[in-house]
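Ankyrin repeat protein structure dump, as promised
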Amino acid sequence: MAKILIENSEGNVNVSVRTYTNGNVTPLYLACSRRHSKIVSYLLSSRWTRDIIDVFARNVEDQSLSIHVAAHYGCYSCVDSLLDFDPSLALLQGPDQQNVLHFLLQRRPQSLSSTQRLQLYELIKRVLRIAPELRYSKIKSTQVNTITIAAQTGDVELLRILLSFNRTEDSSYPLLKWINERANAKVFGVTPLLMAAQNGFEDVVQFLLENGADPNLPLTEYDTTPLFVASERGWIKVVQVLMEFNFSKHDSQYSDIDVQKSSKEGLTAVHIACHQGHVDIVKFFFKKGITIAVQYNAKGEVRHLSDNDIDSFCSHLSTKKKKKSKLNILFRNILFKRRKNFNVPSHITTKW
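structure tokens r here:
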């Protein structure tokens, strides 16, 4: 229909006319937002429109361009056509100083077909060839970088593509600085590894560790590490990857993971796993020998249980909470580290 209207009027159509509502956008912008790739291709290539089309026209409400909305809605053919028309579009920023690379990385490849996924990968490579400096760009309001955005999708291939454009090891922005870069306080200083850990992406966690991610770098707001957030959310595979990673094999500058590092509230990964009822994670910690000797507080109250006390203590609690099977697993192996208020996992489990 667009072709018929334009050609029958011999080009006497204003292709830059704007809507009265929804951002006062152009036909090109609307076509990109609706993923009408054939219309976009025609508008950019027709002899009637190619010399007058305005690819730089912005949505007046959020300042996004046609290329941004095309990337956001997954119209990769539209993005390709726009880059063919003018490669400099890759450099232009939209809402919150986001560029086309940010929008492309936010699309989770798992929701795409295999063909669309390959198209996305090739398009990201193309954008980085046009403007390699975009790999270091950040979203303005949160200072989240491209690696953190990619880590949030759970797709290791996106990370491989990004890091492949860093292999020249830019001395002004080395890999370790980039991969351990924090966002700002609005998102609690999240890092790529923390983002992957809290979402349960064990393959991404493994990849980031292999490339130098700091396993002990915590959130700035709560002082919680990747191990802590994975234990809190019940991601047993992530916990296993973090605990069993061979740092020396990968020439990492980090020697080990700090299992006993506590949050600002004095909670360790073992405490939070108990609090959330993740018995499989607690059991895994015990198999790794995470124990501390029996201690008593100033009032003579037991902070930690010895093996001789476990059966009677479990029986007492299970009568009240009806959780004998979980409690036996929980206490059979333990000598716990206390919190700042003397609470230990045994105290916390009684609050389930």
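DSSP finds 19 helices and no strands in the chain.
lmk if u need the other ones
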